[in-house]
Amino acid sequence: MSLIEQIKEKAKKANKKIVLPEGEEERTLRAADSVIEEGYASLILLGNRALIRQKATDFGLKNIDKVEIIDPKENPKQRYYAEMLYEIRKNKGMTIETAMELVQDPLYLATLLIKNGEVAGEVAGAQNATGDVLRPAFQIVKTLPGVSVVSGAFVMIMKDTQWGDNGVMVFADCAAHPCPNEHELAEIAVVTAKTAKAIAGLDPRVAMLSFSTKGSAKHEMVDKVINATRIAQEMDPTLKIDGELQADAAIVPKVGASKAPGSSIAGKANVLIFPTLEVGNIAYKLVQRLAGAEAIGPVMQGMAAPINDLSRGCSVEDIVSLIAITACQAASK
What does the pLDDT read at residue 80? Predict the structure, then answer.
């Protein structure tokens, strides 16, 4: 059974409810039909009820009648959610009038459904830019306690099974935060380890990557990684983590033994934490293209509830997979 099949089986057992704010979009509708057919999650679609029903008929979808549909513009609880939004944001200058307008926006309503405990997570981005998806998430759902930054992880599935655990590794941050400081980098390490366990089923062995291994170079960027490693260990004393390590020292046993003797992580890492977004983004794309690896993600992490952002070029199967991943994230909290 492939990893994505394992994730889908976990999602079935989790039995979580996920909201899809782009409920009128064709790929989202087709994905919703498949998710209900396979039992990966229960769903709420946001959008015009009549339009969604008509499109489902036109597309020959058989399971949309089993999905709850909420029309943000005709929602009988509109005032209720507006008052909730107003209370959350009034100290930031929110007025009840503005709140009444915003709750008609599916992306805002989706996060309010999460905040109110009606759904466990959200998947969006087939139609909307990342900033538009994440803005209401930051404002309403916010980050996990003790976490100040949202990051994006990729589960990398290599054809060559010598890497990570049978070819499976997790890379972060590859999607969200351009230049984390040492505290933010530590947070990214801690939450990525949780993602690796919840989504990929790994026993996380975290390598904090640098261009230096154990003092082989001196630079403020190296110091950042060293300090982040220490802070991550303080945040979670059970975390299996080491740094600073060069990439080869992190994943090649012979090199790890030579450059970092005595390290329990060097040469054995299955989670790689990159010092900046540019490094992580470049690395995952190179591995994806040059090694023919499958890259699942980005899995957004650090939010108080799982809110995941799709590429606007996503396929139906991409949406299905991300719904299953989101359900697994929700089950791990």
Answer: 98
At residue 61, the pLDDT reads 97
Q: How far apart are the first and last CA of the chain?
A: 25
Q: What is the pLDDT of residue 130?
A: 87
* 11 torsion bin: left (phi>0), alpha (psi -120 to 50), beta (else): alpha
Per the prediction, the chain carries an average pLDDT of 96
Is residue 96 pLDDT above 80, yes or no? yes
- In the chain, where the domains are located: 3-142+304-332, 151-295
Nearest of 40, 43, 31 to residue 10 by alpha carbon? 40
CA distance 62 to 64: 6
Q: Which two tokens stand for residue 130?
A: 């990342």
Residue 297: the pLDDT is 85
The sheet carrying 42-46 orders its strands as: 68-70, 42-46, 17-20, 121-124, 307-309
Q: What is the CA radius of gyration of the chain?
A: 21
Class of domain 3-142+304-332: alpha beta
- Cβ neighbours of residue 34 closer than 8 Å, sequence gap 6 or more: 316, 320
CA distance 34 to 60: 12
31, containing H or E segment = helix 26-38
Confirm if 41 and 323 have CB atoms less than 8 A apart: yes
Please tell me the distance from the alpha carbon of residue 52 to that of residue 35, in angstroms, as a whole number: 16
Residue type, 30: R
The residues, any chain, with a CB within 8 Å of residue 166's CB and separated by 6 or more, are none
Q: In one letter, which amino acid is 135?
A: R
Architecture of domain 151-295: 3-Layer(aba) Sandwich (3.40)
Domains 3-142+304-332 and 151-295 share a fold: yes
Global confidence as pTM: 0.89
Which residues 6+ apart lie within 8 Å of 183 measured at CB? 148, 228, 231
